[in-house]
Amino acid sequence: MAIEIIATGRAIPPTRLTNDDLAMKLDTSDEWIRSHTGICARHIADEDTACSNLALEAARQALTMVVQQEGGSGNETQDLVDVALTLDVIILGTATPDYLGCPSTACVVQDKLGARNAAALDITAGCSGFIYGLEIAAGLLGTGSRRKRALVIGSEILSRFVDWTDRGMCILFGDGAGAAIVEKTENPGLTKRGLLRTILGADGSGTEHLIMRRGGSRNPYKTGELVGVPPHIEMNGQAVYNFAVKRVTETIEKLLSQENITIDDVSRIVPHQANARIVQAAGKRLGIPEEKFFLNIKEYANTSAASIPIALDELNRAGSLQKGDLIMTIGFGGGLTYGGNLIIW
Ligand code: COA
């Protein structure tokens, strides 16, 4: 048995906000943002777009890829519904859901796709959401289960939860969604395929370092407070930076040693796109050439749980992932959480 990614999709809002655009409103510059983060632009959802809208678009793209592989009837709408009906579970990683707590954004997506046979749940693992989601999908589809297909999505509207007057924060984030269809395939041969190994971790002592303090049961809004005061993400940038470099380095080392392979066996590392300097620092510590890491942070900034599936979809659609390639994902985020997957494409 193998758990394979058979299709991918992404959704990027068309509105592009460059560093120069930000520098017109804030005391910052393109030079500072580029040199400290590697970011040049980010995409921002319009007012009417919620997390589920981006998730839905990314999911439809991935489902369309399945239709193309399986050969549909030619009636696009019906073909999409038919494939959606083959989904057994929808897992959606997000820190910026449509609604606080209930209903899950995954349920909104399930309804809009017409995926009536799918269970649906959101997971809160910050920017590690997709890495966690793949492993949860593998568990739900695993040996003995009758479930066969999962849709794993990372979707975020971070622009709605950053303080646009805080130059240390708002420059970092963007909106977007990425999706993958994961399927259990029988693998009678000895060749390894699909999701090979996952490491997941958390360090709850770092909850304060990346936090949306207001709006939950710990600190609910009082009457009249809601208007015009959305909760904002607060961050201790230095603490997150140090945590990230340490955990990314450790997780790469562990994935390699547990699988008894070297970095030369890995075709591509797809890291969470938070700050190019974090990736470069970890790569330097481990002696990994920069070209091994796929970075698209320049264009999208940090899209949290969406960043890895967006990157996977870009690589996949560009034909840069060959069957049999060993791909490593690696990430970290609010919680604090971290993890990585090794996947044979
Ligand atoms: N433009 C210009 N100057 C800025 C700025 C901006 N956008 N943001 C901060 N500065 C200034 C600071 O005010 C500070 O000025 P001072 O020295 O006069 O006080 C100076 O630049 C250095 O700030 P500092 O916070 O020390 O910068 P840094 O090199 O640590 O970079 C981050 C800050 C946020 C880019 C970095 O800490 C980081 O990437 N952390 C990880 C964040 C992350 O990945 N979060 C998401 C996790 S999923």
Structure description:
This protein is of the alpha/beta class. The chain folds into two domains: 2-185, Thiolase/Chalcone synthase (Peroxisomal Thiolase, Chain A, domain 1); 194-344, Peroxisomal Thiolase, Chain A, domain 1. The protein is built from ten helices and 13 strands. The protein has helices at 19-23, 30-37, 51-70, 76-84, 105-113, 129-141, 237-259, 276-286, 297-300, 307-317, and strands spanning 2-11, 16-18, 41-43, 89-93, 119-123, 149-157, 175-185, 194-202, 210-212, 233-235, 268-271, 326-333, 337-344. The strands form four sheets. The chain has a five-stranded mixed beta sheet with strand order 1-7-6-4-5, with helices on both faces. Helix 7 packs across helix 8. The chain is globular. The two termini are 15 Å apart. Coenzyme A is lined by residues 28, 32-33, 36-37, 127, 167-168, 171-172, 210, 235, 237-238, 240-241, 244, 274-275, 302, 333. Residues 28, 32-33, 36-37, 127, 167-168, 171-172, 210, 235, 237-238, 240-241, 244, 274-275, 302, 333 line the site of coenzyme A (COA).
